[in-house]
Design a protein that fits this description.
This protein is mostly helical. It contains five helices and no strands. The two termini are 22 Å apart.
Length: 147
């Protein structure tokens, strides 16, 4: 369970990190160029399954190590990080995707939506990194039961 939680948490960091790495180059692009660049994310929705998967696996990790306080709380905090990520996605990222029909329609407030989309992804990158650290610390602090 520890290995699975670390791997899924690490995989969740990949698309989040890609969004963060692209932000400085994209945030000031003119409208047409920005919408063109956003097309590279077509098909990435499947990667969104990593977040609820990481939430579930980290919650299961917390349950499996509940006999040890430190590993339990670290895993639980990691699961909470993924819950927060999902909330940020639902409150800020998803509405921007919906308002722009996944960046194929240009509404009047597209620049505000761009900032909302980009910075919600940036925040989620920091959160998933923290979650990965918490998951790893949980695994490293767990000790097998004595004889």
């Amino acid at each position: 369970m520890q290995f699975l939680a670390i791997v899924i948490s690490a995989l969740a960091l990949i698309p989040a990190g890609a969004h963060l790495a692209a932000l400085p180059n994209k945030i000031s692009l003119p409208q047409q160029e920005y919408f063109t660049v956003q097309g590279i994310y077509y098909g990435w929705a499947i990667l969104g399954l990593l977040w609820p998967s990481a939430l579930i696996v980290n919650a299961l990790l917390a349950i499996s190590v509940r006999s040890q306080a430190w590993p339990f709380w670290l895993a639980l905090l990691a699961a909470l990080c993924f819950a927060i990520m999902l909330a940020i996605f639902v409150v800020w990222t998803l509405p921007a995707n919906q308002a722009t029909r996944n960046w194929t329609t240009v509404p009047a407030n597209w620049e505000a939506l761009r900032r909302q989309w980009e910075y919600s992804h940036a925040a989620n990158t920091a959160i998933v990194f923290a979650a990965l650290c918490l998951t790893t610390m949980s695994a490293l602090s767990w000790r097998p039961a004595g004889p």
